[in-house]
Specification:
The structure is a homotetramer of 340-residue chains. Chain A is 35% helix and 24% strand. Chain A is an alpha/beta fold. The first copy, chain A, has an eight-stranded parallel beta sheet, sandwiched between helices. In chain A, strands 9, 10, 11, 12, 13, 14, 15 and 16 form an eight-stranded mixed beta sheet that branches. In chain A, helix 10 (259-268) links the parallel strand 13 (247-250) and strand 14. Chain A starts with a strand and ends in a 5-residue tail after the last helix. Chains in contact: A-B, A-C, A-D, B-C, B-D, C-D. Bound molecules: nicotinamide-adenine-dinucleotide (4 copies). The site of one nicotinamide-adenine-dinucleotide (NAD) has 28 residues of chain D, from helix 1 and strand 2. One nicotinamide-adenine-dinucleotide binds next to helix 1 and strand 2 of chain A.
Chain lengths: 340, 340, 340, 340
């Protein structure tokens, strides 16, 4: 059993914890919080030992009926590997302590690429990560792009990618961030930084990305356009997507035309936390014009798509499974995850 | 086993179906849809026999891989009782067919009060509904008001109620309805129709309600002010709420101050479809000024609070359980529902 | 003086009326409404003779203190030309009456292209419209696309255009339409109908468009990508835009990065109804990659950009001004409109 | 001519500047900004001398084509009175410099009451402010409440007020603040701080307020309930409101039922920046139940209602006009402001 600590039990951390707990070869030895909140009660409810960043706050947790197992340092010492899911930028500050205790560490997409030895995506570069000391699971948007670009590249070769990312303003439980009634260019300049981020995993891909932020909470929406190297057909592309176990197709018969309805669907399916772990590619949008010009819309659930990638990254760094497909299959199976 | 048909498998109907399926004394003998959609796939996935309103559409369902059990009339014939969860106003049109086949029927709050023999809330008037041929489960807002007013009335006597309802614009999966950036008075006139609707269940209550609609999807928010007959204290009121099994208290320690965060909490708790079946009363808001003037904020999950009421209404009409508390306990237990 | 009637005094109609009234060579001989509303008071306040669709409603207008000049037919008879700004699809139904009285007519983008003899944009095809009996001013989105594509095409030649339109859900005063919290693909299929609509004005342009709808009210946002025929530079493109009198550049120094802030700026500038009549191209976004690959973001104020085009269309159909530049200059000057 | 400096040329400051410039007895001797932005260009466009907080930034302004008149201290020295419209809390930090130069100062509602000698509302306590050295114009919400409560109190006597404030999340040009899809209790506790703030102007009023924040940008919406001392009628209350020159009635005939449509109306009326300077009381909502229980809905334009109050506060502090009605009349007239 791989002993996993999750440092930062928030939007990403709480999902990683449940996903780890579901795996046959891993266990959660602790999760961490900075202050009392609803999520601390959830940690207790799940039975995860709760460690806290500032041990002086122990009393405030105990008053609220939440037992404290110790401070974050103690948690790290007990772990084989730490998944750092603290807010963007905090991970880099935490790195020295993981190094001090010689613990393997996985960082999230809010960190710069140089926080870790490798930027990771299970389908694209699992093998390169095997045995490494640290990895960064690329951001939700980058993960979504990498999955589809890598799949196209393997099948047809990708000459050039142009993607427009229409991003959610804040996560559903975020009551501070807007915008309320605006489309915000973020950044105004073209290209955005997402292209270079894709290249941390797929260095040979020629890609231009544009990004904006809109008032929605449930998922990002991408338009992906790719010039393919080989001529192909819409059906051939759909076949590639259908056979990919982290790309789902939103079919016409569902009448789903938005992130909101797609979330309702995953909710109805009983997915934990309504998570859409896969790319939600809209089947009707998949187009190949003039034989080589690919287009599609895809919904990317920012809170969810990186979760299975974190699990695979754990196995890759620990070196317990050397076949990417084997790890991906194990992860999906333990989650009860079959792409829609 | 009570044989239950659910006519209209949408936002309310799909939840009622799952809740019925969870009860030890009931079974879902069929659900109905008008056309192919994501929800039709969910019915199939759950194993509910699917009946369709217009049998001419059978082919379109079967092409989409969804088996059709027959038309709605056949479903009704097989049932002991029908839960009508069709859109507001359609229930009244369906009534003659339930009468034709002498089936008991439960309608929803989108219908006028005269659609059924009684307007129903489990805690308030279960006994009066026993053995009746039809009942209307009052709307989400009215259910939320009735629960808290009835509890206060039982404990302290209620002289007068003033409530302001800040309503969600549309359900989360509704992509048509707004507003996008507006507060809409609905109606502009004061009082709104919600007061009279409360009186269909609690006829003796003096109540003035005001209502508006805002751009949110997750829950309504109510401010409830009541002049009490007996002097009391904040603690005594909290005790009444704590001992009520369909009123939950959102505590300060959770740091939840909004519908959005409350929904995240029910989602983290693993509630099916993130449902908040109970009233979400904010503990910190519960106030008693000058001994008799009660105030609170409560969140009402429009999609969920009426679900357990539908289950109790089934037992009341069927006359299988005569003690309201017994039915409420059975319903909650089968749902795994313990108020937060 | 050209006698102009405006049939349909709503979002577009009321703006056209004010713009006509500001021109030295035109006068508003009447505007029309179907029922009493805030806009009827505005017509009165502006001193525009108000005609009504259904003369039976005369009393309801007069009770509300709004004098009625007659019915729509009378208005049409008095006019030289009618600007039809009724809701999409109603224009086509109104066409026979314009023909009956042999009146020239201008329709809006909510109508199909075949409603009129020509689809119109002042910079692109004014001359072809001269003397015609009817014209359709293309939609807000199409007008925005045509301006920038035509300018690029004139200067550098355009090989291919790919545009993604992120559309506002409803106009600011629309309290019915959503979505509240969703990104809606509209349509899901690729390409959208906007490309063909551009080709009603610029038939030789190879263009693929994608469209979605988001919860904002103020403006659409476009990403425009064009493969140019001639090599060029960012500066050369900026120069083309700067010298275009219906394209404005949103400079970096303003710190404007969104439709919301751009609207605040036009409001601060004292523009009537805060109208952004020009394309709002974000200067920082203007990019030329590899010499021939153009990119930019542009904000398109749906309520406003078609207004000056309607004015020019009046002159073209009436044949009073034969030089497009002369008409455009007259229109802009009378509006006090200098592109930002 | 009263020489007025406006320190902080943002949402409130830019409106105060235009309002001052419109008065016959005042002039704007300068406005201040901290950094280059769209508003700096507006100051230039209006011809207001621009002073900057940090004179080291002079070059960045000049590079952007915006002349700098000097630093804030120089501006203050030239003024008879300073209107401080810096962000909440900054005013208190600025106070010592106004004192140093013995300048009268007006602060905004984002400051604590003790920032100034008096909390001000023109109709309620103009006379008490005459000749004072400093005043705080109470916040947008408090101004809106004070106007209507004071008017009712003068006419009928007010026993008790209960008000629920449904507040806009951010101003229209604010792209950072949310919420996107939430109703946020702010605060969760009851009563909110708005009641005590009303009492800084009307100390004898018994008032309980509740407040929440919703995803809208245009205006706050209040429900006001008051127990009156004298019996009265709806018509008598409407008469009081009609004769009040800073309360407007939104009539039924306009079909306006929301803040969004009300804003469209002020925009159509040509109000500068679409400002609703008055309380927008919905005529249909005005109710008197049982002779003494008053109810209404009112829309409060957060950016605008305090503007005329600032102008009156200038005259009161300067002591140039001793009759409140005279100042209010002068202010309104110069603005071309007749309540709707
Ligand atoms: N939310 C998303 O949509 C999303 C998607 C992909 C990647 N990410 C990335 O995942 C990371 C986490 O983001 P999130 O959205 O889960 O953030 P979050 O704010 O929801 O959760 C962060 C958690 O870390 C805890 N924390 C903060 N400081 C800490 C410290 N010093 N030590 C220990 N714990 C601390 C907080 O209490 C909180 O529980 C970021 O790098 C982010 O960029 C987020
Ligand atoms: N959604 C809520 O928030 C909410 C809350 C409380 C009560 N209600 C009430 O519950 C009822 C149902 O509302 P909903 O939100 O679930 O609606 P919905 O639109 O989500 O679902 C209605 C379902 O009925 C089906 N249907 C439509 N016409 C039909 C017909 N003639 N025969 C059979 N099926 C038909 C539709 O296919 C759909 O699946 C309404 O009375 C509503 O007022 C809704
Ligand atoms: N609103 C936009 O963003 C926008 C942008 C570009 C083009 N358009 C197009 O402009 C046209 C008008 O749109 P709008 O947004 O101004 O609509 P609107 O609903 O705001 O206004 C339409 C007006 O027409 C009146 N009307 C309705 N039926 C009528 C009839 N039979 N006879 C006379 N008057 C009638 C209504 O009272 C209303 O005042 C449509 O074709 C639309 O597609 C709209
Ligand atoms: N916006 C509203 O809805 C509203 C309504 C009523 C009252 N108020 C109050 O008015 C005040 C101003 O609010 P606002 O919304 O106009 O803020 P804002 O942020 O729009 O404008 C503040 C301006 O002050 C400038 N500024 C910041 N620090 C400064 C400093 N140290 N010296 C000089 N200038 C400085 C900024 O550049 C900006 O232009 C606050 O007290 C606020 O609470 C605001």
């Amino acid at each position: 059993m791989i002993k996993v600590a999750i440092n930062g039990y928030g939007t990403i951390g709480k999902r990683v914890a449940d996903a780890v707990a579901a795996q046959p070869d891993m266990e959660v030895i602790g999760v961490s919080k900075t202050s009392v909140s609803a999520e601390a009660y959830i940690a207790k409810e799940r039975g995860f030992p709760l460690y806290i960043a500032d041990i002086e706050k122990r009393e405030s947790f105990e008053k609220a009926g939440i037992p404290v197992a110790g401070d974050v340092e103690e948690m790290i010492k007990k772990a084989d590997i730490v998944v750092d899911a603290t807010p963007g930028g905090v991970g880099a500050k935490n790195r020295p302590i993981y190094e001090l205790y010689k613990k393997k560490a996985i960082f999230q997409g809010g960190e710069d690429a140089d926080v870790a030895e490798i930027s990771f995506n299970a389908h694209a570069n699992y093998k390169e990560a095997i045995g490494k000391q640290s990895a960064r699971v690329v951001s939700c948007n980058t993960t979504g792009l990498v999955r589809v670009i890598h799949a196209l590249d393997q099948a047809f070769g990708v000459e050039k990618v142009r993607a427009v990312m229409v991003r959610r303003g804040g996560d559903p439980n975020d009551i501070k961030r807007g915008p309320i009634d605006a489309i915000v260019l973020n950044p105004v300049t073209i290209p955005s930084h997402h292209g270079p981020d894709v290249r941390t995993v797929l260095p040979h891909i020629n890609i231009v990305t544009l990004a904006m932020i809109v008032p929605t909470t449930f998922m990002h929406m991408h338009t992906v356009q790719a010039d393919l190297k080989k001529e192909t057909t819409r059906d051939a592309v759909l076949e590639v997507f259908r056979s990919h176990n982290r790309i789902g197709l939103v079919t016409k018969a569902t009448k789903i035309t938005s992130n909101a309805q797609l979330r309702e669907y995953t909710q109805d399916l009983g997915r934990p936390r309504t998570d859409l772990w896969e790319n939600g590619v809209f089947e009707d949008s998949v187009s190949v014009l003039d034989g080589k010009e690919f287009y599609c819309f895809q919904a990317i659930h920012q809170e969810a798509d990186v979760i299975p990638e974190n699990i695979d990254a754990i196995r890759a760094l620990m070196g317990t499974v050397n076949d990417p497909d084997e790890s991906i299959r194990m992860t999906n199976e333990a989650l009860g995850f079959v792409a829609i």
